[in-house]
Design brief:
The protein has 214 residues and is mostly helical. It has helices at residues 2-13, 21-36, 43-75, 80-92, 104-112, 117-133, 140-159, 161-166, 168-171, 176-187, 192-213. The chain is built from eleven helices and no strands.
Length: 214
C-alpha cells in the first residue's frame, strides 16, 4: 500500500515536474533491500513485483488527479473535467500547437542530452572493469530488475512527449534514478567476495615483500 499512498500524494505535490521519481526511487530502494538481505527472487517474481507496485502507484496517481477534476467541476461553474482531458491529450501529442513539430524520440533524446554523459560513462567504464575482473553470475536477475526500472523515465518521455520536449530543462531530472539503476545493475554483477580476496592477497604479498626486504 505504500506505493499507492506515494502515488496519491505525488498528484498533489508534483505539478508534472518529476512525478516518476516517487515511483523509481522507492522501487530502486526496494530491490536494493532485497539484494542486501540476499533474498533470492526469481525473474518472474521480480517482474511481478515491479509491475504490481508500478500499477499501485499509477492507479493512485491517476485517480487522485481525476478526483481533483471531479471535485473542481462539482464545486465551480466550469467543466474542469473537459479542460483537463484536453490538456492531457495536448501533453501527449508531439504535434500539438507549436511552431516546430518533433517526434516522440526527440523528447527522449532531448532529455537524455542534458545529462553529463562524459562523467557518467567514466563511472560506467570503471564498473565494467570490475564486472570483467570480478564477475558474479548470480547477480544477473538483479541486473535485469535494475535495468527495467532504469527505462521508466524514457517510457514516460515517449508517452508524455509534448510536455517532456517543451520542458526538458526540468523533466530531465527524472533520470536521476535511471543512472543510479544502471550503476546498481553493474554492481550487482560484481562479486565483492572476489574483490575482498584480491585485496587480502595484495596485502599479503606486500607484507611478505616488506619482510623479505628487511
Amino acid at each position: 500500500m505504500l506505493f499507492f499512498v506515494i502515488g496519491s500524494l505525488t498528484a498533489y505535490v508534483d505539478l508534472l515536474t518529476t512525478p516518476l521519481l516517487t515511483l523509481g526511487m522507492p522501487l530502486t530502494v526496494l530491490f536494493m533491500i532485497y539484494e542486501h538481505q540476499k533474498q533470492e527472487i526469481s525473474l518472474i517474481k521480480g517482474l511481478k513485483k515491479i509491475t504490481f507496485h508500478s500499477l499501485l502507484w499509477g492507479v493512485a496517481y491517476g485517480f487522485t488527479w481525476m478526483s481533483k477534476w471531479i471535485i473542481a467541476t462539482l464545486t465551480t461553474n466550469r467543466n474542469v473535467i473537459e479542460d483537463a482531458i484536453q490538456t492531457f491529450l495536448f501533453r501527449l501529442d508531439p504535434k500539438a500547437y507549436i511552431e516546430k513539430t518533433f517526434t516522440r524520440w526527440d523528447a527522449v533524446v532531448g532529455n537524455a542530452d542534458v545529462l553529463q554523459w562524459v562523467y557518467i560513462n567514466m563511472v560506467i567504464c570503471a564498473l565494467l572493469l570490475f564486472v570483467v575482473f570480478f564477475f558474479r553470475k548470480e547477480g544477473w536477475r538483479n541486473f535485469v530488475f535494475f535495468m527495467i526500472i532504469a527505462v521508466f523515465p524514457y517510457v514516460w518521455y515517449f508517452v508524455v512527449a509534448n510536455h517532456s520536449y517543451l520542458h526538458y530543462w526540468f523533466t530531465y531530472r527524472t533520470q536521476a534514478f535511471s543512472i543510479s539503476c544502471i550503476f546498481l545493475a553493474l554492481l550487482s554483477m560484481v562479486s565483492f567476495a572476489k574483490v575482498k580476496n584480491k585485496l587480502k592477497l595484495n596485502r599479503f604479498k606486500h607484507s611478505k615483500q616488506m619482510m623479505e626486504n628487511n
